[in-house]
Every structure is written in C-alpha cells, then in structure tokens.
Amino acid sequence: MNVVPDTSVVIDGRVSVAIEDEDGQFEGATVCVPEAVVAELEAQANDGYDSGWDGLSELKRLADLADDGVIDLEYVGERPSAIERGHASEGEIDALIRDLAEELEATFVTSDIVQAEVAQAKGLEVEYISPEVREIGELRVEDFFDDQTMSVHLKTDTVPMAKRGALGEMRYEEIGDEPMDEETIDEYAREIVDGAKEASGGFIELSEPGMKIVQFRDYRIAIARPPFSDGIEITAVRPIAQTDIDDYEHADELKDRLLERQRGVLISGAPGAGKSTFAQAVARHLNDHEYAVKTMEKPRDLQVGPEITQYTELGGEMAKTADALLMVRPDYTIYDEVRKTDDFEVFADMRLAGVGMIGVVHATRPIDALQRLVGRVELGMIPQVVDTVVYIEAGEVAKVYDVKTEVKVPAGLTEEDLARPVILVSEFETGEPEYEIYTFNRQVVTVPLADQDDDQETGVDRLAKGEIEREIRSIAQGYVDVELKNKNRAVVYVDDNDISTVIGKGGGRISDVENRLGIDIDVRTHDEKPNQGASAGASGNSGGGNAGSQSQPAGQIVTPEITSRHIVVPVDGHQSETVEVQANGEYLFTATVSRGGEIQVSRGSAIADELERAIDRKDPITIVPS
C-alpha cells in the first residue's frame, strides 16, 4: 500500500498517529513523502514559522518508525522550482503532490478539506483526516500570574520576570529561582500558539517571521524567536483591574460631558498609568447608555463586552478600518493606541465625519497629548478634533482639560492688530485657562498662563525675545542682544557696523520688523548697553569687554560643528580636563575634553538640543575651565 501525505497532514502530525493507533491503518505501508512537502516545511522553518518545525518533527517520527520496521519511508518527486514555490498559495505545490499520488497509484492523505475535495474530483483515492482538536484549558504561562501581576516575561536562559503591583506602582521583579531553558520556553510557545488556534476566545493577531502576537482569552501574548530576537522570548500581558467610570474623580461631570454629544477625547498618561483601564470603563459606560461603541486596536487587547466589536487593521491599514467603520456608523470609537502620524490623521478624519472618538495616547504631561496634534492637524481644526483631554496618573484622573477656540489677543500681548484665533486649554473643573496655543510669526507656540513672579521671565517674554532675535539676526552680521523693557517695547543691541543695516533707509527695515511683531524696537550699539564696557562684537572679535559681561562672555570662544550624529565642539588645550560649556555666558553643561581636543555631544539629547538652539541664535559658545 502506497501512501502520499500532503503538507497539512504532516504539519498536523497525524500520519504517525494513524500508523501507531489501535487500528494500525497505515502500518506496513510505504509512506511516500513528496520533495515538495519537504521544501515547504524547510521554507516555513527558515522563516521562523512553528508549522515548519512541527512538520519536520513529524518527518523525524516517520523516520524512526521506518527504522523500527513499522513502515517503509521514501522521498519521491522533484523539488519544486522557485516559480512553483512562489505560486504555492495558488495551489501549484498541492497540484504537484496530487500528481505524484496519481502516478504512484497511492492513497492521498490530507487534513485540508479543499485538497480532499479536489483530489476526489480528480478520481484519486483519498483519506481525509480531520485536523486534531484538543480541549484547551489553561496555559502553563498562566501559572506565573497572581491577582497583582500585569505581565510575565520569559526568555531563554533567563530567570522569569514579572511586573506586579497596583496601577502606577508596578515593580519589575524576579518570579523564579532558575533560568528557563530553550526547550521549556519552546514548549510554552507552541502551547500558546496551538491554544490560540483551537480555543474559543483565542486567535493569532499577528504572524510574521520571528514574531507572533496571540490573543488567548484575557491574555495578549507576544512570542519572539531568532533571528528577530536573540533568543525565544514570551511576553504575556493581562489587565489587572476592571474599573467603572464612577470610580474616578470628576465622574459625574465626565459622564455628562460624554453623553451630551459625540466628542473628541484624548486619554493620556505615562506607560502603565491606567489609560486603557479608564478607556474600558468609558466604553462600558457609553454602551450602557445606548451608544453604539466600537474599537480600533492593533493588537486587540481592550477588555470589553461582546456587544462592543473590536476591529483591527483592515488590509494592513487603519485607514481602511476607518472607512469600514464609517459605513457601520458607530456613535463612539475607542482608538487604542494613537501613536503615528497616520493614526492621528485617521482619528481626525473620523472625528470630522461626526463620529465620537476616544484615543489613547502616551504623554508625560497633560498638555503633551494635545501638542502631538500640532503639525499633524491644521491648528484651527484641533478643537473640532479634540475638545477634551483626560490625563491619567497612577490609575486616577489627575487632570481634565477643556479645549476650545477664541479669536482674541493672546495673553501678554496688547496690540489690537495681534488678535487671532487662539486655542484655549482650560482646567475642566475650574474653567481657568492654563495654556494658549496660537500662531506667532508663522510658528505655532504653546504658552503656559500660570502666574509667575514679576521679575521672572514669562513664556510670552521668552517667545517675544526669541522672535525679535530671529528677525534681527536675519539682517545683522554680528552679535545680537535683546532686552525687553515691557510687553510693547524692546531694545536691540548690535555691532556698530550693523546699525545702518538693521535700521534701513529712513528706518524702513526696522519698521517692517516692528509691524510684523507688533512691538516697538529701539536699536542701539553694544557700547550703549548699561553697565557694559567695550562692544561685544561678532564671534571672534577680541575687544575690551568685561570678563563677566553677557555681551562678551568669558572663556575661550569656540565654533561647534554640527554633523549628522554629533555636535563637535573643538577646544584649544584643556585635553582630559573638565570644562564648562556656556552659551552667551550662561551655563549649558559640564564635559571632559578628549585627548584629541574636542567635546562630542550626541544629537537628539536634551543637552544637544539646547546647544543647537544656542548655535541657531548665534549665541557665543565659550569654554570655561571648571
């Protein structure tokens, strides 16, 4: 008796089972394994798919049975070409295997119902073996969880770890005594994937070479394998709390606000603060009040009732999911997580189409959630997209903002011709404005309105100084210093040879600057600055400035070079010494000079950003020994 198995039944491991069971259905048969099956299994294993490894394990079992004399094992046919493998999804490999079964007058064995029907239609003798279905109870990875465990982290040759504790107070701690070996981790991973396939409430959310994301009941489990990771790693996450909206501060006001009409809401907070938990409570509250609620998630891990449908990417794009949802017409959609520009654009499109939107956003400050819309959504549209910001901290509602637009003169400016649309960000409970967002000299700025000491420079002051410096530096060649006298007047100090250029013929150039900025500007030389000695001059001008003056900072003046990855500050002398780096006489940071006579600062760091801004302002950069 000749038996030709296809790829599905080899992966399922049912050929060896049929040989070894009580009936001994294929005992003594010649099992002819097509080279096309081997090629498919090899390709899948190389790509990191468990199915490939499962199939190769079955071939080893068949080889053992052949060694024991239970069956004869042969490999038949030719290895498929690259073109045939490329069209495997269209049935090319299946056709090769069926042709071999027909040629050998063999029984064709499959666990694929479509293959079985096609083979029968071709007149082949077919043995269809239903895929194995097991009763899935609990996964072994669940044994690591207790009531306060949010996530479990297992990795080859590493002691099991877990995040445990109350919301906002998570601890990453060891939960085992010995490192786990690769064989055990691999068994756990296979059990998880099998459970997701076979258990109700389980499915595979993402399957890529080296990575699978599985939803198994309340657990979201990520399985990483080499070469994507440097070892097999399992990360299992489960929500540790299910709250009701009444458990939160401002509950009554928030409930009324959400039910009043469809709104645009951003739920923000740091990782682990409880944003998703609050989003789930909001979803249940809206559903209980007869609102049609859906979710958009990738991966799907919000814990909501079956009456709330959870959608993921359609065709790999959330934009397509949004198009489908607009046909469904939900009252509210929970979007978890809004991270990339595409996410914000989809959120805005759905909101402007009239759908109530609730987005979950990572932010370390309440205002940061709103600022992430700047540049992604037209400024004037932001209040139409988001009118409420809820900031979650340690599982509690720490701040709620109301967002709206008014046409007004921004706080701190008094000229009537400076009136413009201003986004007011107000504290929800008191109604007191805390921030204003508006366009100033073609730039979008966010200005805090918190009370400050009279002698402390306000956000508006810094903004005005920065814009005046930017305007004057675009005209002047040398060093520029700005001093604000009040909200309507400033004095600009420039080099002697820049005076005429900055003022312009008949004062026309400085008048244009004044009109653009809405502030009176008095132009003077550095010598005219009170309490100053000789002119500061341009960078490199060696004059008689006072050692401690702001216009001529003390120390060695240097010219930093900005590369793609670093800001390189050349230093003459002081090799291996610790020095201070100052901008316009103000301390920036302390560093050690290399033996090559330079300081390197990696771009993207806070220090580099501050130094780069100083360079853009043309501030003198100086090196002062510590």
From TrEMBL:
Superkingdom of this protein's organism: Archaea
UniProt-listed InterPro entries: AAA+_ATPase, KH_sf_prok-type, Nucleic_acid_metab_PIN/TRAM, P-loop_NTPase, PIN-like_dom_sf, PIN_dom, T2SS/T4SS_dom
Annotated region described as Disordered, given as residue ranges: 523-555
Signal sequence extent: none
Coiled coil feature spans: none
Domain (PIN) ranges: 1-117
Alphabetic keyword roster: RNA-binding
Residues covered by the AAA+ ATPase domain: 261-386
RNA-binding listed as a keyword: yes
An example Gene Ontology molecular-function term: RNA binding
Family: In the N-terminal section; belongs to the PINc/VapC protein family.
PANTHER family for this protein: AAA FAMILY ATPASE, MEMBRANE PROTEIN
Protein name according to UniProt: PINc/VapC family ATPase
